[in-house]
């Protein structure tokens, strides 16, 4: 049987799937596919319908992760897996996450059309709830698949409804009691590899003029989503500076000092990012004629090095304590959340580079500052890799602009690597 590593993905199918996702997800501004809600649910049904038409085996686990399988000749062998998430942030773009699932289906559709059969199962996974904009839990779907999502996480409230994650899973038809019990749908020993195609969410590939990136590692995070600084409300005209406990001034001092510490850490060789993504006063009490007595804010620290995450967190807390003492305020941090960094598999990275070279596609090694489900797989001992596809205008906004020619290059590279790992072959004519 001849090699099938060069079978062309079904790119017209990919375009149809993207258009269907766009039509069913557009909220008037961008795309909203809410985690364990109507938007994500519709996207999963779209992918399942496509898989059935291709003759793939469709199944879901207790957390409603979706598995679309082309059976292999040796079903006892560890499976080759690809895929990504299908949820989005509110008013996001059409490609973040979804491109990885669509690419996997396009690859398998090409194989089916060519009469190709893999030696081992090849699975496209549609992962639930990767975007932690909805629930304060990192990688909820992929953690649940490995039996790692505990009962406490299932009590996490959704940002818009306030209802627990477990209730939303049940509403969509899942079994949160099995998730809480740690019943795994996936075992590392049952997987040969996991390869995730994803749009780049920053400007590196656009700036370099290259369509593809091979990810070296995925950043972990340390977050305070619901922090507050508490001062004292007072009259803006009648309260002299020395008598104030101004929450806004205290937070401004913290942000300013942490920016300087960030620069110092970078100069010392640390790689990290620090973001205060939400800053707001209490709308019920704040007024232009009041000294602000409360400010709510969030902190997001990211790095591929756990020691760097710990060091920046120490700087954050130490600096806040000093400001609190000096300015007569207090800081409340609320629950901490986060994720572990992950390193991508060297052999898979080499295979992605070789496949890109084979189609003369420009490619570069690069880290991922954003988190991805591949980190869950890698940290469970599954050989994992990520392929970035160039994307204009960043991500988490309605202006994502992946060119289909770049997607085609990524799908071809993905297809070659999956075919090599799964030992795909077509019958001789």
From TrEMBL:
Binding site for Zn(2+) 2: 96, 131, 396
Cofactor(s) in the UniProt record: Mn(2+); Zn(2+)
MF-aspect GO terms: hydrolase activity, acting on carbon-nitrogen (but not peptide) bonds, in linear amidines; metal ion binding
Binding site for Zn(2+) 1: 85, 96, 198
InterPro entries named in the record: Amidase_Cbmase, Bact_exopeptidase_dim_dom, Peptidase_M20
Highest taxon of source: Bacteria
Manner of cofactor binding, per the entry note: Binds 2 Zn(2+) ions per subunit.
Entry keyword set: Hydrolase, Manganese, Metal-binding, Zinc
Complexes and interactors: Homodimer.
UniProt cross-references to NCBIfam families, sorted A to Z: hydantase (TIGR01879), PRK12891.1 (NF009527)
Family: Belongs to the peptidase M20 family.
Designated name of the protein: Zn-dependent hydrolase
Species for this entry: Achromobacter aloeverae
């Amino acid at each position: 049987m001849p090699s099938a590593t060069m079978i062309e993905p079904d790119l017209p199918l990919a375009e149809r799937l993207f258009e269907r996702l766009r039509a069913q997800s557009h909220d008037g501004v961008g795309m909203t596919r809410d985690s364990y809600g109507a938007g994500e649910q519709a996207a999963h049904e779209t992918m399942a319908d496509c898989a059935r038409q291709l003759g793939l085996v469709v199944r879901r686990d207790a957390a409603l992760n979706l598995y679309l399988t082309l059976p292999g000749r040796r079903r006892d062998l560890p499976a080759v897996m690809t895929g990504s998430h299908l949820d989005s942030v509110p008013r996001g773009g059409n490609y973040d996450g979804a491109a990885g699932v669509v690419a996997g289906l396009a690859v398998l559709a090409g194989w089916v059309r060519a009469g190709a059969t893999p030696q081992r199962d090849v699975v496209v996974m549609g992962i639930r709830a990767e975007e932690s904009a909805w629930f304060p839990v990192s990688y909820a779907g992929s953690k649940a698949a490995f039996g790692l999502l505990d009962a406490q996480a299932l009590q996490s409230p959704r940002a818009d409804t306030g209802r627990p994650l477990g209730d939303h899973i049940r509403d969509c038809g899942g079994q949160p009691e099995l998730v809480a019990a740690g019943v795994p749908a996936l075992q590392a020993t049952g997987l040969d590899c996991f390869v995730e195609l994803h749009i780049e969410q920053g400007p590196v590939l656009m700036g370099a003029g290259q369509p593809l990136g091979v990810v070296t590692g995925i950043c972990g995070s340390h977050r305070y989503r619901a922090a507050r600084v508490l001062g004292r409300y007072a009259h803006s005209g009648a309260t002299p500076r020395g008598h104030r406990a101004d929450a806004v001034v205290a937070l401004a001092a913290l942000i300013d000092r942490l920016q300087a510490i960030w620069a110092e850490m970078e100069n010392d060789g640390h790689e990290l990012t620090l973001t205060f993504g939400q800053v707001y006063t209490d709308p019920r009490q704040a007024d232009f004629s009041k000294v602000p007595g409360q400010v709510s804010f969030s902190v997001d620290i990211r790095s591929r090095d756990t020691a760097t995450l710990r060091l920046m967190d120490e700087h954050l807390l130490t600096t806040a304590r000093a400001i609190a003492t000096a300015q007569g305020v207090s800081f409340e941090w609320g629950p901490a959340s986060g994720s572990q960094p992950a390193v991508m598999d060297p052999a898979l990275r080499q295979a992605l580079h070789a496949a890109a070279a084979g189609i003369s596609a420009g490619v570069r090694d690069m880290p991922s500052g954003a988190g991805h489900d591949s980190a869950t797989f890698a940290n469970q001992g599954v050989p994992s890799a990520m392929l970035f596809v160039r994307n204009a205008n960043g991500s988490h906004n309605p202006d994502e602009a992946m060119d289909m020619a770049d997607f085609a290059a990524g799908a071809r590279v993905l297809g070659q690597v999956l075919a090599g790992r799964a030992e795909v072959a077509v019958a001789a004519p």
